[in-house]
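Researcher: Let's walk through a ligand-bound prediction step by step. First, I give you the protein sequence. Second, the SMILES string for pyridoxal-5'-phosphate. Third, you return the three-dimensional complex as structure tokens. Ready?
Model: Ready.
Researcher: Here are steps one and two:
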Amino acid sequence: MTYFRSNINAMKGYTPGDQPKVKRLVKLNTNENPFPVSPKALKALQEFAGDLRRYPDPVASGVRKAAAAFVGLEEENIIAGNGSDDILTIVMRAFVGEGDKVAFPEPSYSLYPVLADIQGGSQVFIPLTEQFQLPENTLELLKGCKVFFVPNPNAPTGNLFDKAMLRKICSEFDGIVLIDEAYADFAVENCVDLIGEFDNVIVSRTLSKSFSLAGARLGFAASNKNLIDGLMKVKDSYNINMLTQVVGEASLLDLDYMYECRDKIIETRTKTADSLKALGMNVLDSQSNFLFVEPIVIGAKDYFDKLREHNIITRYFPAETTKKYVRITIGTKEEMDEFIEVTKSIIEQ
Ligand SMILES: Cc1ncc(COP(=O)(O)O)c(C=O)c1O
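Model: Step three, the predicted complex:
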């Protein structure tokens, strides 16, 4: 006897990265930012004078305005989400019904298939090449799909997809292209300009990574007014709480601080990648706040387990396409120095 719809019974839920309570842990497993929230944003939160007895602004106008200014668009081009996962859920609910086809690269963010399953959608995996690029026949594989979810930079691989290829897909694919730019602030380019060029493009962003706000849950999508108006009909009425609206808007207005922390992360990313390469490891070029590393001199799962024994927590994805790699979030310079020292000791064992 079951009360659930058959697709809910059949599906596996999403497995979030560990959030262990242990202190003295170097936490490099869920791509959070090691730097504190913007001091200006924290001050705004401390001075919060809103009335928690009341519901929040249903469309989070302050966040929308600040996000619009950040990406160079208008308020009407933005919808806020309870994290960008909420944006992905809204998009899936808006465009994918029972039996509809929905596509994503393989490997990519493992939440997409879960959201497709909840809708009873049918999954189309676009197998990436050896270099983790989109295959030549992507457009062919996308035929008949309602939405193509494509993280750029990709997760967990960290690379950007070829922009000319993405532009061609937006131009020729007749479904929605959701470009998930969770890590775009760490990359040399983004795809916001494609929103103005094509009527089927939605770009999602998060404040969890570059803005150090994973705990506040805030993301947004940018698109043309027509698509944003439709997505507004699907979202929960009050999807962004008052406190998050305050800290999120203030963070989006303190861009200098975000860029300062971002630059430090990129510097540490380069240094860590160089150190790992010097130890004989294969490190993929990263345009994100993490490295995807093929340890070579030691098995990936073994390396992951040994790091854990030394209280360094990273992420291992046992799937066929990812099992040779360990994903390592970039922490502070000090954390990464410790990580490299421990790595040396593991290799020498
Ligand atoms: C590719 C990608 N998209 C979206 C998210 C979700 O971010 P959030 O819901 O915290 O905004 C993540 C988180 O790790 C991610 O890796």
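Researcher: And what stands out?
Model: The longest helix spans residues 255-278. Residues 31, 83-85, 109, 151, 155, 180, 182, 206, 208, 214, 219 surround pyridoxal-5'-phosphate (CB under 6 Å).
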